[in-house]
Amino acid sequence: MPPSPSAAPGRPRNAAATRERIAAAARPLFAERGFEATTVHAIARSAQVSPNLITRYFGGKDGLFLAASDVRFDLAAAFDGPQSSFGERVAHNLVSRWAELGVNDPLPILLRSAGGQPTAASALADFLSESAIGPMITQLLAYGMSREDAAERAAAVHALVVGVVFIRRVLHSTALDTMDDADLERSLGRSIQALIDH
Fold this sequence. Notes:
The protein is mainly α. The chain contains 11 helices and no strands. The chain folds into 2 domains: 5-68, Arc Repressor Mutant, subunit A; 75-197, Orthogonal Bundle (Tetracycline Repressor, domain 2).
């Protein structure tokens, strides 16, 4: 088989595109199989590149996993607003994002792999702390809650959300998997709001 054009030497201008193609090929494989069962050769095959490019661009499977599962989205924007519609805003942000990204959503990748892969567990903990729990606590403090109360409620909301994501996006089981996005958004929004207002 002739080498892929992006794998050919002497074409540094294509390095960024090749790197992204490899990461894009890795995401659905990591999401479906988890870290351990996903091989470098399978990723290279899917991306139509030589396996040595994964080492060159990412330093190996660990580095590629971190790149493929990099979680970047602005939850703080969803948190901002009145307390009375907090659950509605957060649920809409999450469900819309899941629908938009599909298999390219890195959060299920981290959840599927976190139990047996320290890299995934660390990345997931960092994301929840820096991008989700921290900003949520800040917003709850703005509603006049004590720091202890805000931290407890934020932890409860995130336990709920992570559980829903895991069941719907990783396990594909129970009624959560068959519920349409609009019904899921309404149900999740009500549950989040109850945790905030209780």
